[in-house]
Design a protein that fits this description.
The structure is a single chain. Helices cover 28% and strands 25% of the residues. The protein contains two helices and three strands. A three-stranded antiparallel beta sheet has the order 2-1-3, with no helix packed on it. The chain is an alpha+beta fold. The protein is globular.
Length: 65
């Protein structure tokens, strides 16, 4: 039986305005555009690295299924 992939829920809580262009690009690459918007991503080292870069702008929580 295939193992179910872990998912994480990411919410944009602060505006990326005033941050560097790389932070803005990282927020967009995560799929976030508006404050309060929430997306679900697969929990992977790549996504975790992106989140550590913009941890001051987002809220992260594990999805319980």
């Amino acid at each position: 039986m295939a193992k179910k992939e872990k998912m994480i829920r990411i919410t944009l809580v602060h505006s990326p305005i005033g941050n560097t262009e790389t932070h803005k690009a990282t927020v967009r690459a995560l799929g976030l555009h508006k404050i309060g918007q929430t997306v679900e991503q697969k929990d992977s080292p790549t996504v975790r690295g992106m989140l550590s870069k913009v941890n001051h702008l987002v809220k992260v929580e594990d999805v319980q299924e």
